Amino acid sequence: MSLLKAEDITVSQGDTPILHPVSLHLEPGEPLVILGETGSGKSLLAQAIMGTLPRDLAARGRVALGDRLLDAARPDGFRPLWGRQIAVLPQEPWLSLDPLMQAERQVTETHRLVRGLGTTEARVQAAADFDHLGLTGAGHRYPHELSGGMAQRAAIAAARAGGARIVIADEPTKGLDAARRDEVADLLLAELARGGGLLVITHDLALARRVGGRMIVLREGRVVETGPTKTVMDAPTQTYTRDLIAADPDNWAARDRQTAGAPVLTATGLAADRGGAQLFSDLSFDLAEGRILGVTGPSGCGKSTLGDVVLGLVPPSAGRVKRSEGLAPTAFQKLYQDPVAAFPRHRTLKGTLEDVARRHGQTQDRIDALMHRLGLAPVLLLRKPDAVSGGELQRLALLRLLLVRPKFIFADEPTSRLDPITQKHVIDLLCETAATEGCAIMLISHDPALVARTADQMLSLDPAAPNLDVTPTRVAGALQ
Amino acid sequence: MNTLITRGIQALMVAVLIGAATFAMMRALPGDAAYRIAAGRYGYDNVDTAAADAVREELGLGGPALPAFLTWLGDLLRLDFGTSLVTGQPVIEEIGHQLGASMALAGVAVLLSLILGPPLGILAGLRPGGVLDRVLLVVSTGLKAVPQFLMALILILILSVQFRLLPAAGHGEARHFILPSLALALGLAAVNARIARDAMARIGAMPFYSFAQWKGLSPRQTLLRHGLRNVSVPLLTYLGLQFVTLVEGVVVVEAVFGWPGIGHALVHAIFSRDVPMVQGTALCLGLSFVLVNAIIDLVTQRIDPRRAA
Hints:
By secondary structure, chain A is of the alpha/beta class.
C-alpha cells in the first residue's frame, strides 16, 4: 500500500495556473525524485502536498496518507501531520535552525513536545540521534558554530524526531560541495531503509542519480517525463530531459585548450590564514591572457580567500602577487556568487550599467554590443534586478565587469545558484569571454567535473589531497 | 570583557564632554550669575547688589573659565562633585536624594511600557497586515506624536479634573505614581510596540520559524520557544537607546507633576546658575546611559551568543 498518494494536484495564483495537474505516489522503501529547474513548480508541488503554500497561492487536489484523505485546498488540515507523519527537510539548514538555541535542544524539544517523550528520555534520545549522525559532542554548539554539513545533519535529526515516516527534502543539497552532497544523499537513503518514504525535490542531477528510485521531470508547471530514475537519466525520451542531462558538467565536452597570451599576473609562495588556522601555503602560479585557472576544494578550504588575495582585497600572510606592468588599477575584477546581492535592488539595470559605462568612458554602443554577445534581450535593462532570472542577472553582472575592460576576472562560484542548463550557458560565455576579451580568469567551483572540463590550469586546495599541482596534465588526469 | 573596556572608555569620554559642554553653556547664559545664585539662596525679594557682590566674592565667579573647569575635572577624578552654590550641601548628597525618586518613577514607567507595548506588538507582528497590525500602527504613531508635557496635561485633564480619580500632583503614595508614569509609559510603549511588531514579523518570516512548525510544534509552542527569545534581542537593544527619551521625559514630566526628582532638580539648578549641581546632574544622567547600555550589552550577549564573538 502506498504511504502517500496525491492525485491531480494543481496550484494557481488567482486565475493563473502555475502547476498543472500532477499525480504521484510514494511507496515504502522506494524514493521519488522530482527534477526541474527553478520555476518549474517542483517546490510548489511539495508545498501543496504539505499544506505549506504561501497564502496568495491556492492548491487543489486530493492527498491520501495511510487511511486519511485530505483536500489540498484546505491547508489547515495538513498541520497535524507535520512532524508526526511528514517530515520536511529545509533548503538551507543553517537558516532552518533557531540561531539562539543550542543544536541538540532543537532536537530534544521535538522528541518531548511532538513525540511526547519525558524530559530525560527526550534528552537521551536526542543525544543518541546526534551520535548516530556523527555529531557527537556538537550538541551544545549554536547553529553558527556548525559547518554546513553538520547543520544539515542536525536539521535532519530535528525534522525526523517527531517520528514521521515520510521525508520530503526540498533541494537538500543547495550550496553543498560534492562530498557533502553524497553524504546527505546517503543519509536520506539510510532513513529510507527503515521502511519510510522519501520525496526529493532537486535540480541536482548527481543527487538524483544517487537517490535513484522513480523520477518525475517537471518544466514550467507540467510533467515532462516520468519513469524509473535510471531509465530516465540513461535514455531520456523527451528533448527537454536530454538538454537537462547534457547540461550536467559530467557530460560536458572538454574545452579546447587556449594558447596563452601576454602574462597578467605571477603569484609566488602565497599563504593565508583565517582565525589563526592556516588555509594554504606556498602556492605559486602564473596566469596569462585567455587562460582559465580552475580552483577546487571542499567548502571552507580557502578558495574564496585565495581569490581575494589575488585581487588584493585580503593581504596574504606570506608571498606576493605581482601584476604585469601597465595594467589599470581596475583591471582585476570579481564576479560574485550571488548576482542578486551584487546589484542595487531599487535601481533599473540600465541606470546601474550606464553609471559604470560613464565612469570608465564606455559608450552605449559597447553595452548594446555586449548585450547581444551575451544573449541578453535589450528589454531586460528597463527592469530591476529582482525582475530578471538568476542566469540573466549573472550574465548582466559579467557585462558590467566587461565594461571596465578587465584583464583578470575572479569568478567565485558564479553558477552555484543557477540551474544546470543556465549554468552551462553562463560558463560557456565566461570561457568565450576569456578568448574574445583577452582576460585571464580564475574560476572557483565546488564541482570538480565543471572545473576539469573548463580550466586550462587547475589548482586543488583539498587539504586531504594537498597536491597543489597547477600543470595542465592534472586537468587531463582529473578527466579520467 | 571587551564590552566592559569599551564602555569604560566611553564613560570617561562622556564625563569629560558633558562636563565641558555644561560648563560652557552655563557660562554662555545671559545675565549675571551672582545675582541668580543670590536669588536662589535668599529668594528673589531679598537680592540686592551687596548680596550679589558677596556671592561673587565668596565663589570667585569673576575668575577665568579654564582654571575653574580644570579644578572641577580634577575634583571629579577624586570623586568629589563639589558643593551646591545655592544650598552649600555636597552635590553628591543632593543627587543621591533626588535620583532615588527619579529612578522609581522611570522604573515604573518602563515596566508599564513593557506590559503595554511588546505583547501588542508581537500579536500584531504574528499577522502582518491584519486588523490589529493596522490599528496598532495608527494608535502608536498617534501616541508617539503627542509630546510628553501635552500627554501629561491630557491625562491630568481627563483623569484628575474630569473624573477626579487620581491626584494631579504630589509624591509619597502609590497612587501618585500612576499619572506621571503613565504619561511617560504611553510614549515609550508606542515605540516598543513598533519594534516588537517589526521584529516579530521579520522572525515569523524566517525559515527557522516555519521549520519549527514543520517539526510538529504548535503555533503557540513555536512562539514561546523560538519567537520570544529572538524578538527580545532587538527589543532590549532598543530599550537601551530609549533611555534618552526616558531622561528627556523624566525632566518634563517631573516638572509638570512636581515630582522631586533629578529632572526637577536640574531645571532648578539651571535657573539659579548652580554650575556644580548642573554638571553633577548631567554627568549622572550621562553615565547612567552608559551603564544601562553596558548592562543591556551583557544581557543580549548572553541571549545571543553570536554577539559575543
